[in-house]
């Protein structure tokens, strides 16, 4: 499909998912600040409306313990780190938040970066959807650019599929609902002319009810030239194990997100990591060739996550076929995200009916 040429905003994504030790009991530090921004946020939370605030860098330092670089498990505040920045846990009064401190961009002076950052913040603050991580505010008043997000209690889909920190395995029903939520979040981004560019299980966060929230639909942070249906970028953003062939050439299109989501669906089915250097094939996306090859011993039943007990083969086959279609090498042969949402929704309906029997 044609993606509008007038698209101005494409979202590149720092790979730094906030994760958390499950079961971690943490008491928020007492709030001694009378900072008006903190009070604004608290008032908005109480009325159910999330304000989008401009924070001072000093305030963000205070709520993150001076950006304490020790990991959460070692008593610090660091939740995760990636090529684009580091994420810290903070508290605004009693509300837990995730503060992303962005790395500087080598080939861009700070004043230009701030202009771009502020323009993009204006666009991003209107992106509100049940399946996107809520952006609470930002800071750009000093040398350091920061974004403040809602904190996600159940960490990333990547960690939950791996049962990190002793978390229980996700059920088939939970996995289908997470897949549907993620697809709906992507559909919203695409309808609003955003391409995520780094869809992966580490960027799919889960709230206290295991509702999927896409994170890192943030900053372009790249020099880009428009073409009629796609965008070419000099800075290739994304994680190799999820990248479509055209994305590796620097082409940006909604169909690249669909491809990456196909890998996420394989993770959801199998519980396997997207890449494993000690296995052959190393990339999860390539295992489908073995499943589809009748001469190979690997069957779809063998591929399904053994930690999951409530699955039904016809439903698994539907999701597997959808994943394969999303992973087509030719982007024009992949479904649009609206079709993906529709397919998953039909499976979710059947799973819900099964659970009522």
Automatic annotation (TrEMBL):
Pfam families noted in UniProt: PK_Tyr_Ser-Thr
Top-level class of the enzyme under EC nomenclature: transferase
Domain Protein kinase: 73-348
Signal sequence extent: none
Catalytic reaction(s) noted: L-seryl-[protein] + ATP = O-phospho-L-seryl-[protein] + ADP + H(+); L-threonyl-[protein] + ATP = O-phospho-L-threonyl-[protein] + ADP + H(+)
Alphabetical UniProt keywords: ATP-binding, Kinase, Nucleotide-binding, Receptor, Serine/threonine-protein kinase, Transferase
UniProt-listed SMART domains: S_TKc
UniProt-annotated stretches for the region Disordered: 1-41
Gene Ontology molecular-function annotations: ATP binding; protein serine/threonine kinase activity
Known EC number: 2.7.11.1
InterPro entries xrefs: Kinase-like_dom_sf, LRR_Rcpt-Like_S/T_Kinase, Prot_kinase_dom, Protein_kinase_ATP_BS, Ser-Thr/Tyr_kinase_cat_dom
Binding-site positions, ATP: 101
Listed name of the protein: non-specific serine/threonine protein kinase
């Amino acid at each position: 499909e044609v993606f509008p040429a007038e698209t101005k905003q494409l979202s590149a994504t720092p790979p730094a998912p906030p994760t958390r030790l499950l079961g971690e009991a943490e008491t928020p530090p007492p709030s001694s600040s009378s900072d008006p921004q903190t009070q604004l946020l608290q008032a908005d939370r109480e009325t159910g409306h999330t304000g989008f605030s401009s924070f001072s860098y000093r305030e963000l330092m205070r709520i993150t313990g001076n950006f304490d670089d020790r990991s959460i498990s070692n008593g610090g505040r660091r939740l995760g780190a990636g090529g684009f920045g580091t994420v810290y846990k903070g508290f605004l009064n009693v509300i837990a938040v995730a503060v992303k401190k962005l790395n500087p961009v080598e080939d861009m002076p700070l004043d230009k970066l701030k202009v771009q950052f502020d323009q993009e913040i204006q666009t991003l603050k209107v992106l509100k959807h049940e399946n996107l991580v809520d952006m609470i505010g930002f800071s750009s008043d000093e040398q350091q650019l920061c974004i403040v997000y809602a904190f996600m209690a159940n960490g990333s889909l990547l960690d939950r599929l791996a049962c990190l920190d002793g978390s229980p395995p996700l059920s088939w029903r939970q996995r289908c609902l997470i897949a549907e939520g993620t697809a709906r979040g992507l559909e919203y981004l695409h309808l609003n002319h955003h391409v995520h560019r780094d869809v992966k299980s580490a960027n799919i966060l889960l709230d206290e009810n295991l509702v999927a929230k896409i994170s890192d639909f943030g900053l372009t942070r790249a020099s880009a030239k428009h073409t009629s249906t796609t965008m070419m970028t000099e800075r290739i953003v994304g994680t190799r194990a999820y990248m479509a062939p055209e994305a590796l050439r620097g082409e940006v299109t909604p169909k690249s997100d669909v491809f990456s989501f196909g890998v996420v669906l394989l993770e959801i089915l199998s519980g396997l990591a997207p890449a494993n250097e000690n296995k052959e094939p190393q990339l999860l996306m390539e295992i489908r060739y073995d499943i589809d090859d009748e001469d190979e011993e690997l069957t779809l039943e063998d591929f399904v996550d053994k930690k999951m007990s409530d699955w039904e083969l016809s439903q698994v086959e539907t999701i597997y076929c959808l994943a394969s279609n999303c992973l087509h090498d030719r982007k024009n042969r992949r479904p649009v995200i609206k079709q993906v949402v529709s397919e998953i929704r039909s499976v979710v309906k059947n799973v819900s009916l099964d659970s009522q029997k």
